[in-house]
Protein: COQ9 family protein
Amino acid sequence: MSETQDLTLDEIRALLAPILPRHAAFDGWRPQAVAMAAQEKGVDADVAQLAFTDGAIGMIDAWFASIDARMMDALPPDRLATLSIRKKIIALVEARLALLAPDREALRRALAVLAQPAHVVRAGKLGWRAADIMWRAAGDTATDFNHYSKRMTLSAIYGSTLLVFVNDDSEGHADSRAFLARRVEDVMRFEKTKAKFRNAGGGEHLSLSRFIGRLRYPAI
Structure:
């Protein structure tokens, strides 16, 4: 009896997700990639297809979720604890790049799928999810407007870094790491300037932040 026949569809998604990109690099984010991954893991092909009825976007979502999980395994809290916020964020993004590096062609194809108008909303949610997980790993506990602005900013930094990364042939992806460091430095400089302005301007504007902080962003 196959060890995989009693798995739920969610468990099959999680099982196949890390190996989908190696097949998507050749077959695209299409059912053929699911079939090849299923064969590799000994999963019934028809059942595997049921786990990805949302097509390419669902396959990419599952892959990115596996990257989220492996990033957390690579950088547990005790390894991040002694780092500054800036170094934590850089370390977390670099860990993601290292995990994506073996599958850059699949990533290139995935970004093309996510750039399609029909997938813009889902792409935004995936970017937000990655940013949220990284900020939480970095120890962020903000609940006011900063909760949202931090995630929006990191999502933009991560997305732009990926666009550099997919075409980066420098040794050890040094160009991507340098680009990331510059973007983070720019944001940190801006945050310092904003903090000075806020301190000089009094606290009357905070009521809006408190209101927004009570809202919950849409579930992903």
Q: What stands out?
A: DSSP finds twelve helices and no strands in the chain.
